[in-house]
Amino acid sequence: MLSRIPAVTRCLSLAALCAAGSVSALEFPLPPPGEDIVGQVQTVTAKYEDTFADLGTRYDLGYLEMIAANPGIDPWLPGAGRQIVLPTRFVLPPGPREGIVINLAEYRLYYYPKGQNVVHTYPLGIGREGWGSPIAVTKVIAKTPNPTWTPPASIRAEHAADGDPLPGVVPAGPDNPLGPFKFGLGLPGYLIHGSNKKFGIGMRTSHGCFRMYNNNVLELAGMAPVGTPVRIMSEPYKFGISGGKVYLEAHTPLDESGNPSIVDKHTAVINALLKREDLANNLRMNWDLVRDVVAAEDGMPVEIAVPGSAVAASNPLPLQ
């Protein structure tokens, strides 16, 4: 069975994290050219009252990524003294490292401030069944502090059917589902915004918009100007290089409606690899290892090969 956390990253403790500064701000220096991985996996010791929702809020992680990284642990009562994995190591999404990049498959937003050699990353709530979030290229067209909310007719009808009628306009304040700030996008009807509910970040819970923790959306508001490019993708399999080694990070694929997808995972992994021309023609992978990584879908980068190596490779068998 694979060890999901390399020993070099397992040893980070909560005390060491606190000594390094705030543990909640996921800001990393960009890796050198030709490399793709930022951060390190961390572990913390749970207190009796901790839940995955609480720990996610504290460490800028979403609920589902906490569950994926800690299989078999009760998310509502992990237990005092239990070691909890914080999946804070990331393969950066493919494509240009500029502006805002949203990867639906990992429920996560990356922001690359112009002229700075850093990346900020935040968990997101995305569209639930019947309200899938779009895949698109757009930009920020407006920034609004303390927004009011005018519920669309479809959402008002849904709430009315559930016996929870909504007013025509919800004023700014603690009961406003847009939270303290919203970004308007060049996609009619879609926003990046805060939330009046911390539960649901890192899950499929919205009506298609992108929900953030309130402290995160306010931080992003102070950095990302109007005109910031926004690229929205759904990439469950991300290949990356770090220290001359190749890694694969696997998440649960989503369909066009934002639901877990039944796909040919073998084909999906091959397609993701082919997008990396720097790897596809110069790599022999251990497909047994790749199959284990894909089956785990734990969202943490795992070493799978070395570029140009003679790593023994089995035939690329189906990953289903």
UniProtKB/TrEMBL annotation:
Transmembrane segments: none annotated. The active site is at H193 (proton donor/acceptor), C209 (nucleophile). Residues 1-25 form the signal peptide. Pathway: Cell wall biogenesis; peptidoglycan biosynthesis. Keywords: Cell shape, Cell wall biogenesis/degradation, Glycosyltransferase, Hydrolase, Peptidoglycan synthesis, Signal, Transferase. It comes from the Bacteria. GO terms for cellular component: extracellular region. InterPro entries: LD-transpeptidase, LD_TPept_cat_dom, LysM, Transpep_catalytic_dom. One of its GO terms (biological process) is regulation of cell shape. One of its GO terms (molecular function) is peptidoglycan L,D-transpeptidase activity. PROSITE patterns: LD_TPASE. Residues 98-233 form the L,D-TPase catalytic domain. Belongs to the YkuD family. This is L,D-TPase catalytic domain-containing protein.
